[in-house]
């Protein structure tokens, strides 16, 4: 089913296309697009379909997804690793959270906060370093698909410190709040 003809102008602008660009991509004249958008004419079914197909494709190409935002290398630990190993990893990689993965599945997260919280409850930092990750692990980061739109990623990161990204059940990357901030700082 084809959407209302009145949506062409809105969709074209949302896709960031000029009338001339839409005309060239769809094989329809720019003057016809101008007439359609001003309400002066109704296109044939075939031309309307070409316009909407082109706009759908343009929207799909312009959508930023999790795969565009993610870091492909995921530093992680297992539940059996020591807290000291996590702390050293955090220091070396300048990261504040580490996913805990067991048999290729996320089972938790270790954060600076979880380590510091536990530090206040042990008699010696050495004792904490010897503990296993399983003793301080927090809830696992959500696993989202590579195709998840950036808008959803941004909303989820309002409530989460990080997101694991996957494809066909396999973890392929990670996105944190700092990754989104880096994108803003790199914007032209």
What's this, in brief?
This protein has 188 residues and is α+β, with helices and mostly antiparallel strands.
Q: What count of domains describes the coordinates?
A: 2
What's the CATH H-level superfamily name of the largest domain? CBS-domain
**Low-confidence runs (pLDDT<50, min 5 residues)?**
none
* Average pLDDT rating: 89
Strand content: 15-25%
Overall 3D shape: rod-shaped
What Rg, in angstroms, do the CA atoms define? 24 Å
CATH architecture term of the largest domain: Roll
Note the main sheet: 3 strands, mixed
Q: Count the strands? A: 5
CATH class of the largest domain: Alpha Beta
SSE run: HHHHHHEEHHEHEEH
Note the gap between the termini: 38 Å
Lateral arrangement of strands in the main beta sheet:
3-4-5
Share of residues in helices? 40-55%
Structural class: alpha+beta
Describe the protein.
This protein is α+β, with helices and mostly antiparallel strands. It has 2 domains: 56 residues, lambda repressor-like DNA-binding domains (434 Repressor (Amino-terminal Domain)); 121 residues, CBS-domain (Roll). Helices cover 48% and strands 15% of the residues. A 3-stranded mixed beta sheet has the order 3-4-5. The protein has a two-stranded antiparallel ribbon with strand order 1-2. It is rod-shaped and about 80 Å long.
